Amino acid sequence: MSKERLIIIGMSSTAEHLFSFVEAHGLFEVVGFAVNRDYRDKDRFLGLPMYDLEGLKTLEGEIFDRVFVAVFWNALNSDRRKI
After folding, report:
1. The model's pTM
2. What residues does each domain of the chain span?
3. 39-79 pLDDT, tens digit each
4. How far apart are CA 17 and CA 67, in angstroms?
5. Which residues share a beta bridge with 52?
6. Which side of the chain, N or C, has fewer Cβ within a 10 Å radius?
């Protein structure tokens, strides 16, 4: 059975740690990262594609099954709701 495909929202150290954890435990197949278009300054992060957050809805089901919002804990739930 194939693993669900995951997009991680963010490209901070939190996203990097999450990526390492998911990979180490084989939880999902991480297929890329996404951030707001205004903050995306590269095409790849940790060797995987970077996507514009604004365009993810059109890619859902095609390239990913789940997303994880990797934001720092200081305004955790408030920031996640906004994203």
Report:
1. 0.83
2. 5-82
3. 899 999 999 999 999 988 888 788 999 999 887 666 556 66
4. 15
5. 35
6. N
- Residues 6 or more apart whose CB falls under 8 angstroms from that of 21 comprise 27
Residue 67 to residue 22: CA distance in whole angstroms? 12
Q: How far apart are CA 80 and CA 29, in angstroms?
A: 22
The identity of residue 76, as a single letter, is L
Tokens of 13: 């150290």
CATH topology of domain 5-82: Rossmann fold (3.40.50)
